[in-house]
Amino acid sequence: MIYLFNIHQTKDEEFGIEEYRDRVCVIVESDDPGGERGEFETFLSKSLSEWCGFDPNITAQQVETIVGFNPANQARYDYEVVAPGEPGAGIRGFTDSVTVLLESGNPGGDPGDFAGHLRSALREWYDGAKVTQVESK
User: Fold this and answer.
1) ∠ CA 56-58-107 to the nearest 5 degrees?
2) pLDDT tens digits for 43-81?
3) Rounded CA gap, 75 and 128, in Å?
């Protein structure tokens, strides 16, 4: 499943905020991140808004392919999600891969902070599963 997030913050001279635009693409290899329809997008939109540190307008949509996404400058973050499960409790384990592409290539913050923010958000979404950043493919 592919989710495309458009982030836009209008310029606000009163608060010294410059106009900001970026796009984030999240690819979930299993095609099913879990949750109710729309819940994953809402969760990630909130997480991206928290990272931005301001209140941008974020729109999210499921897409079949990534059209017009500029690969020239993009940053790529790959994660492996592993939940061992508890067979005795009837809980099945699973693994999944999640790739996050940031079109601008510049998430801001200190090196590694955005990757850590994404890892924490995925750990929260997948309810404590082990989330590891892996080498980009």
Assistant:
1) 70
2) 998 898 888 876 667 777 777 777 777 777 889 999 999
3) 25
> What gap in Å lies between CA 114 and CA 52, rounded to an integer?
10
Calculate the alpha carbon distances from 119 to 3, 84, 85 in Å: 17, 18, 20
CA 8 → CA 20, 24, 54, 74, 124, distances in Å? Answer: 6, 11, 10, 17, 25
Query: What pTM does this model have?
Result: 0.84
